[in-house]
Amino acid sequence: MAAPKTARATKITTEAFEHVTAASTDAVRENIDRSLAALSEASAFGKQNMEAWLASATAAQKGFEAISARTVAFQKSALENHVAAAKSLMTSKSVQEFVEKQNDYAKTSFEAYVAELTEVSELVAGVTKETFQPLNERVTAVGQLIQTAGR
Fold first, then answer.
1. What is the DSSP string of 80-131?
2. pLDDT tens for residues 108-143?
3. Distance of CA 61 to the CA centre of its chain
């Protein structure tokens, strides 16, 4: 009679052990799968961050090139205008004509400078906006990630 009880106890113990082992294996597998998924998400998020930084740097570089080209063009134009004004001043027939030409040149030069300054300011504002857009998008993504994780 002891043998059937022992066999039954052994069978129950074996089934319990197999059940615990299977549950443990499933739990470990599930945790590994979740960890791999989280690692993959983190890797993708990091890649998107690097792409945003690269896009931002590219926009900044193009903007600086545009600003530099604009500045060089304005300086060239201003120098040409200065040479033309100097030639014009040298052909003045009187002091009155000289002063009038000088005043006209000063006025047009100042107006051109103010106009150029305004346009360059608008260009800088546009470059700044383009440069920070990819970074702002990543900040928004981080905010959304934090909100999602908090739920």
1. HHHHHHHHHHHT-SSHHHHHHHHHHHHHHHHHHHHHHHHHHHHHHHHHHHHH
2. 999 999 999 999 999 999 999 999 999 999 999 888
3. 12
Specify whether the CB–CB gap between 60 and 127 falls below 8 A.
yes
3-state secondary structure of 90: helix
Phi and psi torsions of 119, nearest 5°: -65, -40
Q: What's the angle, vertex CA 7, arms to CA 3 and CA 11, rounded to 5? A: 170
Task: State the DSSP H helix or E strand holding residue 40, giving kind and residue range, or none if neither.
Answer: helix 2-90
- The number of domains in the chain is 1
pLDDT tens profile 79-99: 999 999 999 999 999 999 999
- Quote the pLDDT of residue 147: 83
Task: State the residue range of the domain holding 22.
Answer: 2-150
